[in-house]
Structures are given as structure tokens and as C-alpha cells.
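The material for today's practical consists of a large collection of protein records. There is nothing in a record beyond a sequence line and a structure line. As an example, a complete record with its sequence and its C-alpha cells follows:
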Amino acid sequence: MDHTLISIISIILLVLGILGTFLPVLPGLVLSLGGLLIYKYGTDSDMSMIYIWAFVILTLASAVLNYVIPAKTNRKYGGTRWGSIGSIIGTIVGIFLPIPLGFLVGMFAGVFIGELLHDSKDMNKALRSTKGAFIGFIYGTGFSLVVGLAMLFVVVLDMTTNLI
């Protein structure tokens, strides 16, 4: 296969992976890692294996942190298991809502409703828990986004050095 076509496919996968860091319908860093691997093994790239292993480890860490960080921040802000379950249900429902970023709206509404179902008299606790879920989402998404952008940067840098 032509190296140019492989490079284009790699870039497309890397960009889709970056989009997937905040859109749950795309597998995020898995796509980016796929793009990186296709570039490494499909072209005559002399990219060091250190990059490959580092990004594999960071992708695995991101997968774990995307579950741990929101749970920890939710708990830090007074959230309960009800809010966590509401978050999952809300995210799934939100994916199917015909509004932009419905998954986010669904996630936050789910946390809020879940906390109110747990204790309907404490709206402030539900709001704090929702704030914790938001902060956790930002941290997890931010980490994944940085890793995805780093993969794209490494591939583009390698492409440009191979052109010179």
C-alpha cells in the first residue's frame, strides 16, 4: 500500500481518536493508538519503540483514570453511589438525545437525579455531586485529550522529519 495513503489513514484515525476523547460514540485513544501503530508499521518510519510503549501505557492509564477520576471527584464533593449510577444511565440516555452534547447533559442530569432519589431533601448535595462529576469529566477528558494530541504531534513530527 502507498505510504501516503497509510499516512493519511493514520492522521484520520488520530484526529478521530482526539474527537473520541470527549465524544463517547468513538473509542478515543484506542483509535489514536491504532493510527499511531498503522503509521509506525505501515510506513518506513524510524519512530522509536519508546513512543509506542509510552503511548500504550498512557492509553491504558487513561482508560482506568476515566473511571477512577470522576468517581473520586464525585465522592470528594459528597456524591453517593446513586449519583454514580445516575451518571451511567444519564450518559447512555443522553447519547440518544437529539441535542448537541446530549451525553454530557444526560450525565449531569443523571448524577443530579440520582442524588435526589437518594436524598430528595438535600438539593445542595445533589448540586455538589454534579459539580464533582463535571470536574472529574474535565480532568479525565483533559488527560485523554493531551495524550491524543501528543500522539498526533509525534506522528506529524516524524512525517515532517522524513520529508526533509
